Amino acid sequence: MLFRFTSLGVAAGLLVAMWGLNATRRTDARAWVRPIGTPRGPVKILNFYASVGLLQAGEKALLCYGVENAKSVKISPALENVYPSMNHCVEVGPAQTTHYTILAEGYDGRVAIESFTLPVANLPPPPARGVRFAGSELTG
Hints:
Immunoglobulin-like; alpha+beta; elongated; three-stranded antiparallel beta sheet; 1 helix
């Protein structure tokens, strides 16, 4: 009888141990630790803008942003080299007017969103003018 009780107790103990190990393997994506030195508080978008108010087709501009208390940052349409920073710029060159949206997620799971539209003008090229060089006329 003692043998049966011991086997049953060992089996129950193994089941509890396996359940405990399985529970520790699960990770909660919402459990983030705020880096040392970062201020406490909700996520904030400090700024989000383009370096120009109007872009000519074929030209490039800087799209700049700053966030505070963010564990992740995404900009749509998708851009490379985007990460949480208090002051960061990336180069953009849209072919047409584009609406940009930034989404910053905080350590507490809250999000902050801002957006703006960068207009792109498709102006015709300027007319060619004659240029004089040493008495001759060239067009260019």
